[in-house]
Design brief:
This protein has 70 residues and is α+β, with helices and mostly antiparallel strands. It is 20% helix and 33% strand. The chain has a four-stranded antiparallel beta sheet, covered by helices on one side.
Amino acid sequence: VQTCALPISLAGVAPGDVIVAFDGDDVAGPAEFVLLVTRAAVGTARPLEIVRRGERLTLTVTVGRRPRDR
């Protein structure tokens, strides 16, 4: 059962996963991840590398439009 509707969880990232790369670029932290994603075109599929329970996995995610702040 999916309990989180955040876009990243809809892409297959689960609690406890560590994002290590986006579209071939290493990710050092949350701010860098946001910067890399904002540079990608909306609607394009990009590889997202994560570490889940010690195993490195590659997911394919579709970049969406960032919701506006309310």
